[in-house]
């Protein structure tokens, strides 16, 4: 990413990329890592590589229909990725059930971080994975976009194409179910 493109908002980059496709590469540089981490948490590292590629290919193909009134493309990209993850839903559900049974997270992380985190949270992680697996697809999508990716209600609504009130109710329902499973009032 050049200094020149670092100052330009996403909508302008997308607009420019219609005439100069190379401009779209800056969006990839800005968001590919975030989209990959999100997808890896949902369906595993191997499938996440495909999701990232498919997300940016779909976005590139649809760039001429992007709503330029939104300066940030992040929610749009998460919406595309979430739709693609839905195609891999069965694999995600199997992974969460396996994590609930075994407590072994398929997403690798540095050894020192893994040891400290696992000692502190092994039982809760199994319970949480079980709770995530039991959520409806819509509730799980909202919860993970908020909790893992830090999107706000409006961004999640835009990413999933649902009203903000639906985001709030789905998040409330997901938190309530997680509290019931984990017995934790702080969720």
Automatic annotation (TrEMBL):
> Cross-referenced Gene3D superfamilies, in alphabetical order?
1.10.1740.10, Winged helix-like DNA-binding domain superfamily/Winged helix DNA-binding domain (1.10.10.10)
The family database entries (Pfam families) matched by this protein are listed as: Sigma70_r2, Sigma70_r4_2
Q: What is the lineage of its organism?
A: Bacteria, Bacillati, Actinomycetota, Actinomycetes, Streptosporangiales
**What is this protein's record name?**
Sigma-70 family RNA polymerase sigma factor
The UniProt record lists the RNA polymerase sigma-70 region domain at 27-94
The residue stretches assigned to a coiled coil in this entry are none
PANTHER family, A to Z: RNA POLYMERASE ECF-TYPE SIGMA FACTO (PTHR43133), RNA POLYMERASE SIGMA FACTOR HI_1459-RELATED (PTHR43133:SF8)
Select a single GO molecular function from the record's annotations and give it.
sigma factor activity
Residues covered by the RNA polymerase sigma factor 70 region 4 type domain: 126-177
The yes or no answer to whether the keyword Transport is present is: no
């Amino acid at each position: 990413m050049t200094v020149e493109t670092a100052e330009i908002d996403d909508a302008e980059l997308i607009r420019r990329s219609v005439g100069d496709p190379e401009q779209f590469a800056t969006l990839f540089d800005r968001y590919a890592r975030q989209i990959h981490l999100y997808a890896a948490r949902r369906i595993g590292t191997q499938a996440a590589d495909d999701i990232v590629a498919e997300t940016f290919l779909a976005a590139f193909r649809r760039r001429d229909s992007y709503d330029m009134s939104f300066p940030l493309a992040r929610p749009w990209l998460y919406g595309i990725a979430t739709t693609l993850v839905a195609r891999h839903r069965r694999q995600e559900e199997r992974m969460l059930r396996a994590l609930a049974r075994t407590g072994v997270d398929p997403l690798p992380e540095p050894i020192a971080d893994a040891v400290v985190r696992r000692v502190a949270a092994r039982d809760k992680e199994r319970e949480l994975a079980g709770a995530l697996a039991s959520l409806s697809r819509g509730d799980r999508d909202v919860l993970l976009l908020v909790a893992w990716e830090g999107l706000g209600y409006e961004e999640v609504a835009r990413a999933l194409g649902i009203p903000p009130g639906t985001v709030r109710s789905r998040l409330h329902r997901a938190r309530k179910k997680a509290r019931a499973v984990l017995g934790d009032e702080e969720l």
